[in-house]
Design a protein that fits this description.
Layout (H helix, E strand, L loop, with lengths): L2 E8 L5 H9 L5 E5 L2 E7 L3 H10 L22 H7 L1 H16 L6 H4 L7 E4 L2 E4 L2 H6 L16 H22 L1 H23 L8 H17 L11 H14 L1 H7 L4 H27 L1
Antiparallel strand pairs: 1-3, 2-3, 4-5
Helix pairs in contact: 4-7, 7-8, 7-9, 8-9, 8-12, 9-12
């Protein structure tokens, strides 16, 4: 495969740190000197990715591992390394597991009542919900976001956890832990309120509304400001959008998957696309300066 020049820099620019990063990531490359400049050559199929990588880490960062195309990746980071570079993603998943254990995956209603969108109590065979305004007036603001940690069944937790790991660590790698935390809380807030506004008082939970927010964020951000970290595996976007349509059609509930929080999914996707739009436009403008 032919090599192309991705960087032409003055000789006084220290390229050593960035070259070390390429070596650690096992990216094929070579540096030559031409007409008083140092030139970095890489395979043509990963040239855009290397340019973006240099924009982020011109001095190199030997401890940072980023996703790169499979053609250039001989060795991927181990699971322990991924945990070290995705602490917020891992923390959210750990919190979900702890809450799942404490609530017995939806069986322990007393424990679950501390985290639901609406506070409730059991009266005979019925559930009596406390109005949202009363809960907020009592200072229980955490209820706006904590339903994302509640899951109903091991499959519900496993599927949501898998997708949060896949999407969350991408955002954490590119935009940092603080931004991922902000986005997670925002998507949880919007998706929870959308489900409450559409479906009324009820028991709902899970990370799926947040997941559709992360999906929309990565999708639109990548369209406006391409980066290998946000390049999703083929078919993921189509699969999740098709799943959303199947849920909206009612077919998924009919075949035994239970009630689906469709409003939460749609609300998460819409707000995620909006943050992806704003973030992508900002990133593209910043790169052009």
């Amino acid at each position: 495969m032919s090599a192309v020049a991705v960087l032409r820099l003055p000789l006084n620019v220290d390229l050593g740190g960035f070259v070390l990063l390429l070596q650690r990531m096992q990216v094929p490359h070579r540096v030559s000197e031409e007409a008083g400049e140092q030139v970095l050559w890489v395979p043509e199929n990963i040239s855009d990715d290397v340019r973006v990588l240099y924009q982020r880490f011109p001095a190199g960062d030997p401890d940072q591992q980023l996703d790169i195309p499979e053609q250039a990746a001989v060795k991927r980071p181990g699971f322990v390394q991924q945990l070290r570079h995705s602490p917020l993603t891992a923390l959210v998943l750990l919190a979900s597991i702890i809450v799942g254990a404490a609530t017995l995956l939806g069986e322990n209603l007393q424990a679950m009542s501390w985290l639901t969108f609406l506070q409730f109590r059991i009266v005979g065979e019925y559930i009596q919900f406390t109005p949202l305004a009363d809960s907020l007036a009592a200072g229980q603001w955490w209820r706006l976001v904590t339903p994302m940690l509640i899951h109903f069944g091991i499959l519900h937790l496993a599927m949501n956890g898998m997708w949060y790991w896949e999407l969350g660590r991408r955002i954490e790698a590119r935009q940092g832990s603080i931004n991922l935390l902000g986005l997670t809380l925002l998507f949880s807030l919007v998706s929870n309120y959308a489900q409450y506004a559409y479906g009324g008082p009820g028991l709902f939970g899970g990370l799926s509304g947040v997941l559709y927010g992360l999906l929309g964020h990565c999708w639109i951000f990548q369209l406006l400001s391409p980066n290998p970290a946000y390049r999703l595996p083929r078919g993921v976007l189509v699969m999740m959008l098709v799943w959303l349509l199947l849920c909206l059609s009612g077919l998924v509930s009919m075949i035994g998957f239970g009630e689906i929080a469709n409003a939460a999914h749609v609300g998460g996707l819409v707000i995620g696309c909006l943050t992806g739009l704003l973030g992508g436009l900002y990133s593209r403008r910043k790169a052009s300066i």
